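ok so heres the complex, two chains, lmk if somethin looks off
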Amino acid sequence: MKLKSPDDKVTSIVSRVALLIAFVVTLALPIGYWLVAYNGFSDQLEFKARVKATALSGLIATIPEVWIYAENRLLGLITREPVPLDTEEVRVYDERDNLLAQAGRKTVPPELRRSYSLFDGSRVAGRVEVSDTLRGIAYGTLIAAVLGILLGSLVFIALRTIPLRALREVTRALFEQKERAEVTLRSIGDGVITTDADARVEFLNPVAEQLSGWSLSDVRNRPLTEFLNLLDAASGESVAAPVSQALAENRIVSCGRDIDLVRRDGGRIGIDDSAAPIHGPDGDVIGCVLIFRDVSSVRAFTKLRSWEAAHDVLTGLVNRREFEGLVDAAVASAQQAGKLHVICYLDLDQFKVVNDTCGHAAGDDLLKELAGLLLSRIRKSDTLARLGGDEFGLLLDGCSLERAQFIAADLLAVVGGYRFNWETRPYSIGVSIGLATISGDSASGSEVLAMADTACYWAKEQGRNRVCVYRTGDSDMAARRRETGWVMRIKSALAEDRFMLYHQSFLPLNVAAGGREHIEVLLRMIDEEGNLIQPGSFLPAAERFNLMPAIDRWVVSTLFVRYHELVAARGGGPLTCAINLSGTTLNAEGFPDFIRQLAIEYALPPQSICFEITETAAINNLRKAAEFIKECKSMGFLFALDDFGTGTSSFGYLKNLPIDYLKIDGGFVRNLEHDAVDKAMTEAINRIGHIMGIKTIAEYAENDSIIQGLISMGVDYAQGYGVCMPTPLFEPGPRLAPLPELAAAVTV
Amino acid sequence: MHKCKSAAMHNGRSLAIAIVGMAMLLAGGIAAAEEIKIGGTGNALGTMRLLGNAFGKQNPDLKIIVLASIGTSGAIKAVPAGFLDIGLSSRPLTEQESKRGAIAAEYARTPLVFAVSMKNQAKAITLNQIANILSGRMVNWPDGGQIRPVLRQAGDDNTRQMRLMSPALDKALSAAEQRPGIPFATTDQEAADKLESIPGALGVSTLSLIRSEARPLRALTLDGVEPTVDNGASGKYPHFKSFFFITSPLPSAGVKRFVAFMKSPVGREILIRTGHWIP
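and the predicted structre for the whole thing:
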């Protein structure tokens, strides 16, 4: 048996009501018409009968004995008095109901008769009867019936169609809304449970079923608290579901902490929850919706990220940042509570040998094993951290310097006795340890850390594999500390834009090298007092503390931004600017993109920039260097190999580096007048460069004699104090013109 | 003056009839005289009363009672019913009416006339003018006064006779019957009363009614022919009304004596004087 849908029921009810009303309307019109017309007609006939009777009674009174024979007079009266007959028929009867006179049209049935008594004084002498056909009313009623049917039909159609259409529209809209809501609820990734106002379950979406382990059929109409068991993730204490609170307080609530849902099978999953009251049309709370989602993965991921943020992934030890925070906390505790702590800075000896010889994988294994070894030798209250590379930090909490020295010695012995086996070959490792105490006098964590680093450095300087304690007033350590002090100064100068560009022009030594001005951009720093600082003072610290990429970016962006201004200031001729890049910058991620973006933004023409990289930097990571050069050359930039001849240089590398210029190290050039080997080296490098199609630049061309020698060798450019002194790049300065005598010599 | 005089005459006549009636009633009560009831068409009633008075002087044992007008049809019904001894009809009996036990005998004729009040200056009229008046096309007398036709009921004998006078009149009469506001009379006497009292009235009557009841009415010359007894008798004036006695086939002696009186010289003289001629 097919059940009727609500829509069918509504349709049926509306149809019946519409039919009933239409039926009433259909009948009401003809019946109403009939009643009104009939009553009017009846009254009219009755009135006519009374009028005729009045006229006839006058006759009867005049001739009471013979009036019944006075047919002619009777006819005259009933025909004309007081008005002529219309459509009715009039009959006059005597008291024995004998027809005395009859006038008017013959009445066609159906007819209506109304009679009125005729009086002779007070005696009834007869009666007059007026009749008329009801056909007119019948026809009118028939027309009214037809109109009633039409009107009833219209009423039926209107009453059925309009409400049904509206109802269907509403029903369809409700259905679509419900469908959309249900599909949405079924489709969303969150678990959704809806309850009534008594917190009894009405609906669970599939995700809620999956997460809780309960199906809708199991829990429908049951109190939510019977099966939804929530626990505090941290304490494991039972937590009330927020539904009751949301219902009671009529607002959106959540547990507000990490909550675990206990599944039907007893398993626990981490959830985020939110309960919101559901309102009825009049604003009353009619239920509640609880939304929750599985955040186990997120929580685990967050935990992992949190752990990773504080730890070294390889060794599992605390990382530098976390360690620095712990040191800061130790300094604070020392300052506030007078506690004494010691920092150990550990730097492995011979690690680079293992790493270079056995590869990075071996180096990683070594670090992990050593971390475990070191952890096994320290107290639980101490913190061991990997600070980077082969450097470790150890915070000895609540520890005297004497005890720290004992612990450090133990670690020294343990590491010294440790053998790292790789592919059947044992490797010995050493460690240099610097100690620094944390006391109430310590200024900051970074200060203490720098002190330990300095002590460690000093331990290495003193022959490695030993423990060195930082002591205030030690001049060597103070020097070391000065170097670390540059870090802050460089960072400060970068932040405050206290760098300045200088330049030194190249002197073209032959015709082929002429036609385009060529300068090298040099860097100077301005200290807090406005003094100019030479790069030799701050670049080593910048190299050591990984600040070169930031400095190189500053140089590149400053020059790129003002390149066209520079060209204009220098007369508008073609200009190539050489910029030195450090090896660290070469390996820095995103640097090529940085250059490309700036070049496009400031429309640098080809050959406007020549990057100079040192031979050492290039060879340390030949593949990376080759990729970088290739990418920059695709942008139209030039490359020079700087200081060639000083490192473990090999001409073979030149084959793999697509460079445009070879800068002969100044160490050869400076002495070529007096040293035959240096002269030969210069000649060899120049010749090899030319053979490979590379132009050569000789550094340290400090006088005309050297320049003359370079010309005779066929070197393309000369750079040095003999050509010009370094001058500020963006201040107007003398533009070099080729020396006439040199030009003449070349020509000859 | 005419009106007052006419009304006075009418009232006087009614009073006389009443006195005579009372006297007869008293006499009857005393002498138990035989009554002869006469009734019927109104045109003949005036003459019957004159005859009755004359007859009563010669025959005190018989009392002639002339009733108010009940029309020809009433007379034809009342005689077989025994309510009348002599019915006065303006037409002969039909075959069916004869079977009810009555006989008819024509005793006189009189011109059917179109009459106006004596106050009206009009003397003559034509059938066409009457048709125009009834159809509403002619509404004023030559002196400017409004013409007000007085109609009789459709089944009245006078009306039937008018319809036969000309097709135009027949048509005009039908139209007039449908027009509202036209004065209407149900009896010959009522018609005569309205002709007397309504200014500018024009209606049908008989010369015998006008003369026997001494009505202040003027019978108009119709189509150039004056409605006199001679013109009527000679046929020059073609419109006349016949009067019949309706009696039982076996009339009473008193009826017979009255009929005989009417045929007597005295009776004949009264008839001629009142505008009749004997056919």
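quick notes: Chain B has two domains: 2-108+242-273, 110-234. thats all i got rn
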